[in-house]
Amino acid sequence: MSDTSAPQKYRRILLKVSGEVLMGDTPYGIDTKTVQSVADDVAEIVKSGVELCLVIGGGNIFRGMAGAAKGMERSSADYMGMLATVMNALAMQDALERIGVETRVQSAIPMATVCEPYIRRRAQRHLEKGRVVIFAAGTGNPFFTTDTAAALRAAEMQCDALFKGTSVDGVYTADPKKDPKAERYDRLSYMDVLAKDLRVMDASAVALMRDSNIPIIVFSIKGRGNLLSVLRGEGTHTVVAQDRAAA
Ligand SMILES: Nc1ncnc2c1ncn2[C@@H]1O[C@H](COP(=O)(O)OP(=O)(O)OP(=O)(O)O)[C@@H](O)[C@H]1O
Ligand SMILES: O=c1ccn([C@@H]2O[C@H](COP(=O)(O)O)[C@@H](O)[C@H]2O)c(=O)[nH]1
C-alpha cells in the first residue's frame, strides 16, 4: 500500500494550477482526463490532512493580453480571462466532488446562481471544515493575473506555502521552453527572482509572498503524484523563500 501521508510542515497551502496544463494534449480548453488527474492529486493531499486552497489560471481558454493584442479593450479582455477561470474552477469542483472531496467555489466577481462570492471569513471556515476552497475570477480586477490572485489569497488565508503547479519543473536561469541551455535552481530568494527577472511568476505575486514571508514552491503538476512528492520535499522543484540558505 502506498504511503499518502504528508509532512506536518504544512497545515494549510494554496495550490495554483496553470490553466494551460488543463488542456492536456489538446490544443485548447478543458481536457477532462487531465482535470481528473489533478483532482486525484488534490484528493490525496486533502486526505492526508492538509487544508487546501486552489486557484486555477485561465490560459487554456483566454488570456486578456491575447485579446488586447488583437485590438480589444484591455479591461474587457481581462474580464473575459477572469470568466475563463470560473469555468476551470467549476470543472475542477466537478472532478473533486466526483471522488468525494467536499469543495466550495468562491468567485471574486459575484455570480450568485453559480457559486459563492469571495468572503474571507467564510472561506476560512470552509477550510477548517476540511473543504477545498477554489478561488475563481482571479482578484476580480483587470490588469492582474491569477498568480497575483494566488499570492493574495495565500496571504489572506494565512497559508504556509504557495505551490505553483505548472508545465515546467521549477525556476530556470531562463525560460526552459525557449532556451534549451537554461538550468534549474533548487533554491532561490525572492530577491533573486525579482532581480534576475525570472518570469515563471508575476513580479507582483513574488513581491507579495516576500512581504508575507510565504515560500513559493514551483513544480510540474503534469505527472500524477508530483504534488504529494513535492509536499514531502521530494521530486524536482524549486523553492523560493527569504534567503537561499533558509529556503
Ligand atoms: N525563468 C523561468 N523558469 C521557469 N519557467 C519560466 C521562466 N521564465 C518563463 N517561464 C515560463 O513560465 C511559465 C509558467 O507560467 P504558467 O504557464 O504556469 O502560466 P500562468 O500564467 O501562471 O498560467 P496559465 O497557463 O493559466 O496562463 C512556464 O510555462 C515557462 O515556460
Ligand atoms: O486578477 C486577475 C486574474 C486574471 N485576469 C485575467 O484572466 C486571464 C487568465 O489568467 P492567467 O493568470 O493568465 O491564467 C489573465 O490573462 C487576465 O486577462 C485578470 O484580469 N485579473
Automatic annotation (TrEMBL):
Q: How is its activity regulated?
A: Inhibited by UTP.
Question: Where does this protein act, in terms of pathway?
Answer: Pyrimidine metabolism; CTP biosynthesis via de novo pathway; UDP from UMP (UMPK route): step 1/1
Binding sites annotated in the UniProt record for ATP = 16-19, 59, 63, 166, 172, 175
Alphabetically list the UniProt keywords. ATP-binding, Cytoplasm, Kinase, Nucleotide-binding, Pyrimidine biosynthesis, Transferase
What SUPFAM superfamilies has UniProt attached to this entry?
Carbamate kinase-like (SSF53633)
Aspartate/glutamate/uridylate kinase domain ranges (all copies): 12-220
Q: Which reaction does it catalyse?
A: UMP + ATP = UDP + ADP
The cross-references to InterPro entries, in alphabetical order and at most eight, read: AceGlu_kinase-like_sf, Asp/Glu/Uridylate_kinase, Uridylate_kinase, Uridylate_kinase_bac
Q: Where does UMP bind?
A: 58, 78, 139-146
The secretion signal range is none
Q: Does the keyword Nucleotide-binding apply?
A: yes
Major location category of this protein: cytoplasm
- Is Hydrolase among this UniProt entry's keywords? no
> Which PANTHER family does this entry report, sorted A to Z?
URIDYLATE KINASE, URIDYLATE KINASE PUMPKIN, CHLOROPLASTIC
Family statement: Belongs to the UMP kinase family.
Protein name per UniProt: Uridylate kinase
Q: Organism, per UniProt? A: Caulobacter segnis
Organism classification: Bacteria, Pseudomonadati, Pseudomonadota, Alphaproteobacteria, Caulobacterales
